[in-house]
Each structure stands twice: as C-alpha cells, then as structure tokens.
Amino acid sequence: MTFTIPIDNGDALKNAEADSQRTLYPYVTGTSIVAIKYKDGVLMASDMGGSYGSTLRYKNIERMKAIGKHSLLGASGEISDFQEILRYLDELVLNDNMWDDGNSLGPKEVHNYLTRVMYNRRNKFNPLWNTLVLGGVKNGESYLGMVSMIGVSFEDNHVATGFGNHLARPILRDEWHADLSFEEGVKLLEKCMRVLLYRDRSAINKLQIAKITEEGVTVSQPYSLKTFWEFKAFNNPTAGAEGSW
Amino acid sequence: MDLNLDAPHSMGTTIIGVTYNGGVVLGADSRTSTGMYVANRASDKITQLTDNVYVCRSGSAADSQVVSDYVRYFLHQHTIQLGQPATVKVSANLIRMLAYNNKNMLQTGLIVGGWDKYEGGKIYGIPLGGTVVEQPFASGGSGSSYLYGFFDQAWKENMTKEEAEQLVVKAVSLAIARDGASGGVVRTVIINSEGVTRNFYPGDKLQLWHEELEPQNSLLDILNAAGPEPMAM
C-alpha cells in the first residue's frame, strides 16, 4: 500500500520531472557483496556498512538476508530500496507458504522474480538502486546469480558487486575451483574482503559471511579482519625522495 | 552579501536520540534558518506523535512538519483501533512509508524515539531516502557531522537516565559551537515507562567550550570589576 502526499508539481508540460516518479540518486548505500559456489552450496560475504555519501554513517546494517528456506539475498546500493525489496519478497514467500502444497520457492524462482522487478522498474526510469546477489541450494543443486539495477541478470560460479567487480573478481577467476571446502571458501572470501578493506573507501572492517546449504541458511556473527601494514616500504616511504609522497 | 530571505525554511539542525537503561532521551537545538537569516531562534524540533512516541525533525521545516502531522493522524486512528498505545516500531514504519514513497520530493531526516511495553525504549533513525535503522543512539541534521567522533568515544551501554541526558545536552551543545546552522537552546525529551519529561537548557546553563567566553552584561562590568579607579584625592 503506497501513500503519496498529493502535491502540485508544477506545469507538467514544461517541467520535465513533474509527472515522473524516479529515484534520481541513492542516499544510504552498501558497498560490495562477494559470493562463491563451494562444495556444499554457496558462501556470501558482505560488510555491515551503510555510507551516507562519503560519511561511514551506519555500521550495523545487515546486507544479507535469508529468503524462504532455500535462498540468500545480498544487496549493495541504496538500503531503503533493499528494505522495500525484502517487503516484496516477504509477500512472495507468504503467498508461497499459503498454498501449503509442500512446494517452496527455490533460488532460481526468486532470482527470476527479482530480475522481472528490477527490469520493469528500469523500463519506467525509476530503478531500485541496487545490485542484488541471489544464492541458494535446492534439491542438491547450488545456484548463484546476480541482478543489477538496470535489469542485467546472469548466473555464475562466483560473483561480486560494486568495487568487488574490479578487485575481487580477478582473485576469484584465478583461485576459484569446483568443490572448494568450507574452510577454503571462507579463506578465499576473506582474501577478497581484505583487499576491499584496503582499497575501497566505503568498506568498513566489520563483516559477515553467510552460508547456504541443503540444510538452510546461516549468517555468521559480525567480525573484523586483521590487516597488514608492516611492509618495510610502508614504514618510511619517502626516505629516498624527500618531498615526495 | 545575499541573505537570501526567500530561501525555504530549513532546520540546519542538530538532533539526537539516545537509549538508556529504561527509556530514551531525545535532544535538539532550536534554530530554524531561511538562508542566512535565523527565522526562529526558539523552535521546538521534538514533536509529539503519541503519548509515548516523539520524533526529532531535521532538514526542510515544512516537509518534516507535514510528515509528522500525517503520521500523528494515522497513529491516532491506529491507537483507537488497536485499543492500546502504538509501538515505537509502528510509528517508525509509518514515517518510513511516507519518507520512502515520497523520496523524490521530501528532504527531511527524522529520529523516532519512544517507549512501549513490548520493547522498552527504542530509537529509529530515518535518513533521506527512507531507510529505517534501529540504533542504540542516533544523530542527524547538519550538526551531526561534528558528533560522529564524539559519540564513538563517549557513548556507553546501559547509562542511567541522568547520564544519558547529560550526554545529549553536551553533544547538542558541542554541535551548536561548530555548526552555523544549529543554535539557540537545547531541548530534551525523556520518555520511559513513567511518562514524558521535557527539559529546556538555555545557552547560559551550558558549559563553555574552546574559545568561548563567559557572557557578561557589559564591558563596563568587566572594567569595573578590575577594581575601582584610585580615588582622586
């Protein structure tokens, strides 16, 4: 149910924005999500930050949520739009449960639903400003896919959003292989998250890793990663070149 | 220098909400500006929604007022239909509904705080865009930029009511010292199971910060206090 305050938005012919409702820019945003398929299912990592422009304003935002029994949704981008998407999915899952027929929505179906929603909003020039990662396991099959705010949608063995596209994906292309163990998977994700921590200005050092297997979804407690600063060259970088940086 | 007296009324503002062991304390400054002119130097930015839920308003004065008015109206009906006081969460969600669905037109950041029998004292921050974030403490408005570091250091869990209120007053006062868009008096509202208490702290009740001087009536008082002139004999 939407309630829009009636407003006279000016002469509709002259004012380009008068009759169109469109999200022009995001306000509170989440940064990268990184996810991989592994032996028992899917692993996904995200930090808990909500940035407000350049300010790291919120440090306890959960950007990964379980959807139904079989899926996990991670989101980067505008948090209010992510919260709205969770409401849509709540309704979807509720209706699915009400059928009471023993069937439940799998990750493929949820991904497809989200793709339709995102693409249709894009067509109306009023996008949900998110890049979504959908992972899940149903009937032994692992699934990992992504949808962007313009409706581009695909599946892969490993995905990353935002800065992760540039920093995490090369690592994953190099080091991912089929049938990673849980420990190997977590280590790989942590490697990516550490690089993002060093190099993404909007990353914070408080992250969660979520795991989906046939048994269900678990999101870890929040934790911090150690970082390394003891390179000799870091200690006194301008020693040989006074005045430089 | 253009005072821009036709600029929309905006509450530069510092607003704060803090939970403590038993309830919440909301705080705000009292400056409403139109461009460079202070249109109201004693505004009340902490607005009542129900007996047990209040909201701190920042950003556009008009937008925050109209959103509060709608939500107060909805909550009034909701309370009648429910037969008991509305919860803080419901109040926050109603604000979210308006803030999110009108995100292109509204420019207001709000902090909802209150007490209900199910969850006790709760604070919800609702920044631009309509995100809802439940927090143990929240700050907003232009003055909040100066308080992130302060709260990181000064906030502790399970404070007493007195500690919490002192923290809020100190924080608003520090923000006023550095934010040109915040000023005037510090207002606080304490909400707990026993009810609601409003407090008012004019400038002279606050401690002085760096480079601030004790207010005087006149220079003459200072000169005279330096000792009477030697008597002309």
What does this structure look like?
The complex is a heterodimer of chains A (245) and B (233). Chain A is 29% helix and 28% strand. By secondary structure, chain A is an alpha+beta fold. In chain A, helix 3 packs antiparallel against helix 4. Chain B is an alpha+beta fold and 233 residues long. The longest helix of chain B has 22 residues. At the A-B interface, strand 5 and helix 1 of A face helix 2 of B.
> What is the total tally of β strands of chain A?
13
Q: What's the mean pLDDT score of chain B?
A: 92
| Structural class category of chain B | alpha+beta
Residue share in helices of chain B?
Answer: 25-40%
Low-pLDDT regions of chain B: none
Sheet with most strands of chain B: 8 strands, antiparallel
| Percentage of β-strand residues of chain A | 25-35%
Count the DSSP helices of chain A.
5
Average of pLDDT of chain A:
91
The greatest inter-chain interface is formed by: A-B, 26 and 23 residues
Give the H and E element order of chain B.
Answer: EEEEEEEHHEEEEHHEEH
Features:
heterodimer, A: 245 residues, alpha+beta, eight-stranded antiparallel sheet, five-stranded antiparallel sheet, 5 helices, 28% strand, globular, B: 233 residues, 13 strands, 29% helix, 30% strand, Pept_T1A_subB (chain B), proteasome (chain B), cytoplasm (chain B), hydrolase (chain B)
